[in-house]
Write a structure and sequence with these properties.
alpha+beta; 4-stranded antiparallel beta sheet; 36% helix
Length: 1415
């Protein structure tokens, strides 16, 4: 009976894949409907998951049918089945359906994180399936009798299915993930699109008109390249070289297209000398990085991360760009065993050539490292002409092993001609079909003749067929073919002569056609053609029309028949520029001796004409931006969007601004018309041009442009002095104000004209000054300090490159930096990769005579590192002298390169000479020079002579190929001189010798041993340098420049308060470089040397500034000369008082009195407080302080009272005196020394702050009653971060402002002396100011130089301050009062002893008026 029942139950349970038919029983119908619903839900889930590329997920979803089978075995449990359906529907609703929809919208929706989550989901569902299958596989009897138990297990399955869904969605819903992913991708693309890059990809718009190889041609070379890519063991780099016109770029284009179709093309960069971006090496790596980010999502994450970590990475040196944007992302890619291909075409067109060298070296060094880490195959195809600098790189030992060369022009001519024949047959067939020409056409004879004349130059065939294709009808096709064949009829001509004839024929034909359609056809045709050839960056037709002042459409009309040599955009395309089809045309038209006939373009004349055109455009169309006229305080980013900028600076105007100097520099200096254009530009348009360059974000370009024009003008003897001075001033302006000009062009009218010295430029453009707010402090002339480089770390040594354009510095760890001497920008850094770096006292540094290598001594004392300047790579380490030395701590004292061989020579601190071979990196020989440690070592410029100084003896050695020999000993007369410095005078037989202890400078002829001249200086020489005519001697914060012939002082250079370390003369005219202890490198122009001249009566101040409350009376004190200077602004009277002041003087708020302490008797050293009247500087009263020292003093706000103090053995007596009756009103005694005092606004109370006692937690504040001197309140204030330096009541009398050392501040409640508020470091203003509304206001100067007014937590930018004005703010912790804010005036103490004054009211009024004008 039991067996029959069991069989019946089995027959009634459907399979998981079947639908249950209907039944008359209502309960059975409900169960069947629920079962079918559940099955449908599972089917939908299975369908949704098919598109999800997560292994195991589809099987896991299908496995849920096992759960349904359990319900099938328990017919009648409708509630459990319904609960399962609902749980499955939630799985569908929240996971499966959104996943399917998201993948349909974005096939790359899945990332690693989501894949991991889906993988965990699959595992959980599989576990659920396994449990269900275990239940279903039990014996029927057990399932039947365990019905209640199974019901509980089924409910647990339902709960677990819900839990799995909830766990997944808790980490983020699919829909939310999709939206978040969209937002992340959008943010990433914004970041990527902001990456500066070139339009240099193989399919970019800048390469319009270029095609790959014609089908069936170049089969052999394409197969060779394909086999090289597919072979994982082949070299990483394939170098395809060949002559111009042979088809290298076409092959590169084809390879790029093929590899892109195979999804292996990581990036391509097609160089072009005609495109400023595509020839710029600094744009190569950012451009490749952008393409890599598009190529692979993992790479995109890495590139974006690099941009987030360093937004300026695209502006770094190329080595750093490669490391952060290419190397690191490639190492993170998750495609082990995959291949990524890079195509670099026309590398020879990279400018400068050193950029191409760096690219080759960087790839050759990094490719093996990246491949090893990422386990991927990297292939780089490089094409170029066989230029010497590129050829030499591929012949270097390292690159030779990594590259596979292929010389294209050595391919058999028959093979190339067969390809050309195939190409021509196809093109002629297309032309015949297009024009309905009866075939066969052309004749076989004509076809093969054209093939033969092409030799192996595809460019000839392409130019010829494009010329023929320009025929307007079929009848003219044959005529053009015959003309082309006739143009190259000389069978004895070389292949390039035939190409020249082809080009010449095309030009003459186009010119003849134009004569029938355009007035002045020949003149305009030559103008347009020459401009297209010489433009430094190609322009669209409409922009070229505007640049050349032609009628709209004239350019397109003129070049309509030049489609065979130019890439011409569509008629309605206003943005695509005109480009030369092939570089060989540029060579044809500009190279003397080529067969260009009357189309030959003298390059210098062409550039002179374009320069004049650029000046004319600037003169006519460049105007001040209307926003800056109304409000010059605006930032560049606030003047409008791209459309407004396009209106203000259209394309042709931008071109004129950016490239006028390039054309000037390439023109002949004898061009009188161009000389006049430069003169007019300087006198009328200089400031407007600078504004435009700032708006274009090209301040560096402006610096280079001014330098180029100045260099051109120096070649002209007849250039006016005024023009030269204006250019000089513009150069100084750009160097000194480049920081603010990068943010706002309006600084020209608010900052440059305000802070520059009186000079031709400020006088010429004085009418454009927006508001006059600098009352005093402009330098008398441009100082000699051109550029100050903030090196961030202490600089130990400096050396100059032979080109004069770069300088190298070394840190004390031996790491090296390379800087631009023109702009101060960082070019390259070379870090010593040492496990245990230590600081060393001396860091020898040298640059090779060809400027390609740097030698430095890192923190490992017995090694010399040699660096490659182009790549920044460490190419050699010379070490090992300690292996035979008995001195284990032997260190390098001196290092240098020999001029001819580039061998490295060094001298150790035990005076051992070493010479290393530059090729083998092995030691050639060593020699012990003497037994004493050298004080100084120097080598002559020609590398033939070495000088070693010890005490009074200078040894001169001859350096030979096989050894070094002593030539002469020089002995200085007199006592032994401790520590000395020596420097050879270049191009002479003289050497300079400085004695530190003797303060003596001497010049010797080291060949004869004769002392030529000597002199004593007023300082201890620290280092020497010479350029032959001048000698630079450093000591402290000063450099003295001496004439080497007479040792007369030519001038002094002040180091802005910092101690100057090393100096070096640059090959650049009149340039000197120095290092400072403040981690700066300064570049000086010795041509600007001039004796300092005082510009104000306040010169010489050293200690403090005093001013009346309205700022009209100013007093300054110079403790060095014991002089008090007083300036009365209303009366324009200057007075001075010679007096020895002990404590800081004080001025009454109304400016009537000055009080200070002084010695009343110099024999007994008795002190006294004195009161002087400022009007006459007459002493009104003196209070003796028997046996006591003077303390602080303070005037009351109404000017009626004066509180003075005196101290003795830690106690202080305070006296409050009436200035009306000259009597003491009250006295009080404090138990500690006094720091500062302040009267309340009503003058009834006096707050005193006692000296900080280390044994107590805070400082004692005592409030005295003025009339009686009794203490009303005494509180030890805790919680102040630093010792109190000054105090002041706010005007309402309810709060007290406390100033601490280093510029920190706080406010106290006057009633309780409780701390109310704390402020951060405001960078040293004596006392913050209070406005009439009693609001607390601070002045703050940030590191970038901007001065802010801070009120109630808000900051109002006021003005950018030059470095000399910031000096006082940077003297943090000093007790001297170096800045002061009184009334509408702010006073600044300069390091050179002068005083600067700003009119804050005028400044704020000017800003408010400008803002109102904009409204």
């Amino acid at each position: 009976m039991l067996k029959k029942f069991t069989k019946k139950v089995r027959r009634s349970v459907p399979s998981s894949s079947a639908r249950i038919p209907g039944t008359n029983n209502q309960r059975s119908d409900l169960w069947t409907e629920s079962f079918n619903t559940a099955q449908t839900i599972l089917d939908i889930a299975k369908e949704s998951v098919k598109a999800v590329p997560v292994p195991g997920l589809e099987a896991a979803i299908s496995g849920l049918s096992a759960v349904l089978n359990v319900y099938g075995a328990m017919r009648g449990n409708e509630d459990a089945l319904k609960a399962f359906s609902e749980a499955a529907e939630r799985l569908n609703k929240y996971i499966m359906r959104p996943l399917k929809e998201s993948l349909a919208k974005d096939p790359e929706f899945l990332d690693a994180d989501l894949e991991g989550r889906l993988d965990e989901l699959a595992k959980d569902l599989t576990s659920l399936k396994n449990r269900a299958e275990a239940m279903h596989s039990r014996k029927t009897e057990k399932k039947f009798f365990g019905y209640k138990e199974d019901a509980g297990l089924i409910q647990e399955l339902n709960r677990d299915l819900d839990r799995i869904t909830l766990t997944f969605t808790a980490q983020g819903s699919i829909g939310g993930e999709m939206e978040a992913r969209k937002a992340r991708k959008a943010a990433q693309m914004v970041l990527l699109n902001g990456l500066r890059r070139a339009q240099a990809r193989h399919d970019s718009s800048s390469r319009m008109g270029t095609n790959g190889c014609f089908k069936g041609t170049r089969v052999g070379i394409l197969q060779a390249i394909s086999a090289w890519i597919d072979d994982p063991d082949s070299p990483s780099i394939f170098w395809l070289s060949g002559m111009a016109g042979i088809g290298k770029s076409t092959i590169a284009q084809t390879v790029a297209e093929l590899e892109e179709n195979k999804h292996r093309l990581g990036a391509s960069f097609f160089f072009s000398r005609d495109d400023v971006e595509r020839r710029d090496p600094s744009l190569v790596y950012p451009t490749i990085a952008y393409q890599l980010a598009i190529f692979d999502d993992t790479l995109k994450q890495s590139v974006v991360r690099a941009l987030e970590q360093d937004p300026e990475v695209a502006f770094l040196m190329m080595k750093r760009q490669f490391e952060q944007l290419i190397a690191e992302p490639l190492k993170s890619i998750k495609k082990p065993g995959g291949t990524i291909v890079f195509v670099l075409d026309a590398l020879d067109e990279c400018e400068p050539g050193s950029g191409a060298v760096e690219i080759l070296r960087r790839w050759s060094v990094e490719l093996p490292r990246i491949s090893q880490v990422a386990k991927i195959i990297l292939k780089v195809l490089v094409t170029s002409r066989p230029e010497l600098h590129i050829h030499n790189q591929f012949q270097s030992p390292h690159l030779r092993l990594l590259s596979q060369p292929f010389i294209l022009h050595k391919v058999e001519e028959s093979v190339v001609q067969a390809d050309i024949e195939l190409f021509l047959r196809h093109r002629f067939g297309e032309l015949a079909d297009l024009h309905g020409v009866t075939q066969p056409w052309p004749s076989e004879t004509h076809l093969m003749e054209l093939v033969e004349r092409s030799s192996n130059l595809f460019i000839f065939a392409a130019t010829a067929i494009n010329f023929i294709a320009g025929a307007k009808s079929g009848r003219l096709l044959q005529a053009r073919l015959e003309m082309m064949l006739a143009s190259a009829d000389d069978s004895s001509a070389s292949v390039y002569q035939k190409l020249d004839a082809c080009y010449l024929h095309v030009l003459r034909s186009a010119e003849r056609e134009l004569e029938t359609t355009m007035r002045d056809a020949k003149e305009n045709f030559r103008l347009i053609l020459d401009s297209i050839v010489l433009l430094r960056n190609p322009l669209p037709p409409s922009a070229l029309d505007s640049l050349l002042a032609l009628a709209p459409g004239d350019v397109m009309t003129a070049i309509q028949d030049l489609g065979s040599i130019l890439v011409i955009p569509d008629l309605h395309d206003s943005s695509t520029p005109i480009r030369i089809f092939h570089p060989s045309f540029h060579d044809f038209i500009t190279t003397p001796g080529r067969n260009s006939g009357d189309f030959f373009l003298p390059v210098a004349d062409g550039h002179a004409r374009l320069a004049q055109i650029c000046f004319s455009v600037i003169r006519k169309s460049l105007k001040r931006h209307p926003h800056f006229i109304n409000n010059p305080w605006l930032l560049n980013s606030e003047v409008g969007g791209a459309e407004q900028l396009e209106t203000a600076l259209p394309v042709h105007t931008r071109y004129a601004c950016r490239f006028l100097a390039s054309h000037v520099s390439l023109a002949s200096p004898s061009d009188d018309n161009l000389r006049e254009c430069v003169k007019v530009f300087c006198e009328n348009d200089l400031l407007t041009w600078l504004e435009a360059m700032s708006l274009l974000g090209d301040v560096d370009g402006a610096v280079s442009s001014i330098q180029a024009i100045r260099a051109w003008c120096r070649k002209i003897h007849s250039m006016t002095e005024h023009t030269s001075e204006l250019l000089r001033d513009a150069y100084h302006v750009l160097l000194r104000f480049q920081s603010p000009l990068r943010y706002s062009a309006g600084h020209l009218y608010t900052t440059v004209l305000s802070f520059s010295p009186p000079c031709p430029l400020t006088r010429q453009y004085a009418s454009q000054l927006h508001v006059e707010y600098v009352l005093q402090g402009q330098p008398g002339t441009w100082d000699a300090n051109l550029i100050t480089i903030e090196a961030q770390k202490a600089v130990a040594a400096v050396a100059c490159f032979p080109d004069g354009e770069r300088i190298a510095t070394a840190e004390y760890t031996g790491s090296v930096m390379v800087w631009s001497s023109s702009t101060g920008a960082s070019i390259m850094s070379m870090e010593c990769d040492l496990n245990h770096q230590r600081i060393i006292d001396l860091v020898p540094l040298a640059v090779s005579h060809d400027g390609t290598q740097i030698a430095s001594v890192p923190s490992e004392p017995n090694s010399i590192y040699v660096w490659d300047v182009n790549t920044g790579a460490n190419i050699a380490v010379f070490e090992g002298w300690t292996t035979e030395s008995v001195y284990p701590q032997e260190c390098c004292k001196f290092v240098a390169f020999l001029p001819e061989s580039n061998d490295v020579v060094s001298v150790s601190d035990i005076c051992t000479f070493y010479r290393w071979d530059s090729q083998t990196r092995e030691s050639k020989y060593t020699c012990d020079l003497h037994d004493e440690k050298p004080n100084a070592v120097a080598m002559a410029q020609d590398g033939s002579t070495l000088a070693v100084l010890h005490d009074n003896i200078l040894r001169i050695w001859d350096i030979a190929v096989d050894g070094i020999s002593l030539k002469r000993k020089l002995r200085a007369p007199g006592p032994i001189r401790q520590i000395g410095h020596i420097a050879f005078l270049p191009s002479t037989t003289k050497i300079a010798w400085a004695s530190y202890s003797g303060r003596e400078i001497s010049i010797w002829d080291y060949t004869s041993g004769v002392l030529l001249r000597r002199t004593e200086v007023d300082m201890r020489p620290f280092s020497l340098a010479s350029d032959g005519a001048r000698l630079a001697v450093t000591s402290g914060s000063e450099i003295q420049i001496l004439d080497t012939e007479t040792l007369a002082l030519l001038g002094r250079l002040a180091g802005n308060g910092t101690v100057i370390g090393k100096v070096a003369f640059s090959q650049k005219e009149s340039t000197l470089v120095s290092t400072g202890t403040d981690s700066t490198v300064r570049i000086w122009d010795c041509a600007e040397l001039s004796p300092p001249s005082p510009t104000s009566p306040h010169r010489g101040i050293r200690d403090c500034i005093l001013a009346s409350q309205d700022g009209q009376k100013v007093a300054v004190f110079d403790s060095m000369s014991d002089t008090l200077f007083l300036w009365d602004e209303p009366q324009q009277i200057s007075r001075k008082l010679n007096v020895k002041i002990i404590n800081k003087p004080e001025m009454s708020p109304d400016g009537r009195f000055i009080a200070f302490s002084q010695e009343s008797d110099r024999y007994t050293r008795q002190c006294a407080w004195s009161l002087y009247e400022t009007k006459t500087l007459e002493c009104l009263d003196t209070r003796l302080l028997p046996q006591r020292s003077p303390g602080p003093a303070v005037f009351s706000d109404d000017g009626q009272l004066l509180a003075i103090s005196s101290m003795n053995k830690g106690s202080t007596i305070v006296m409050i005196c009436s200035l009306v009756t000259r009597t003491v009103i009250s006295t009080a005694e404090l138990h500690r020394s006094l720091v500062c005092m302040a009267f309340s606004p009503d003058s009834k109370r006096l707050l005193c702050v006692e000296e900080l006692c280390m044994e107590e937690p805070g400082q004692t504040f005592t409030m005295l009653d003025g009339p009686t001197g009794k203490a009303e309140l005494s509180v030890t204030v805790t919680g102040l971060s630093l010792p109190v330096q000054s105090i002041r009541f706010l005007p309402d009398g309810l709060s007290i402002l406390v100033g601490m050392v280093y510029g920190d501040a706080a406010t106290l409640e006057a009633k309780t002396l409780r701390i109310v508020n704390r402020f951060g470091a405001w960078l040293k203003v004596q006392i913050p100011q209070t406005s009439p509304s009693s609001e607390l206001a601070f002045l703050r100067c940030e590191n970038g130089g901007y001065l802010y007014k801070c009120i109630q937590g808000k900051e109002l930018p006021l003005v950018w301050l030059p470095p000399s004005w910031r000096w006082a703010f940077n003297q943090r912790g000093s007790e001297k009062i170096l800045t002061l804010w009184r009334g509408s005036r702010v006073f600044f103490h300069f390091e050179n002893g002068e005083l600067g004054i700003l009119d804050l009211q005028a400044l704020l009024k000017g800003k408010a008026g400008a803002a109102g004008g904009m409204e």
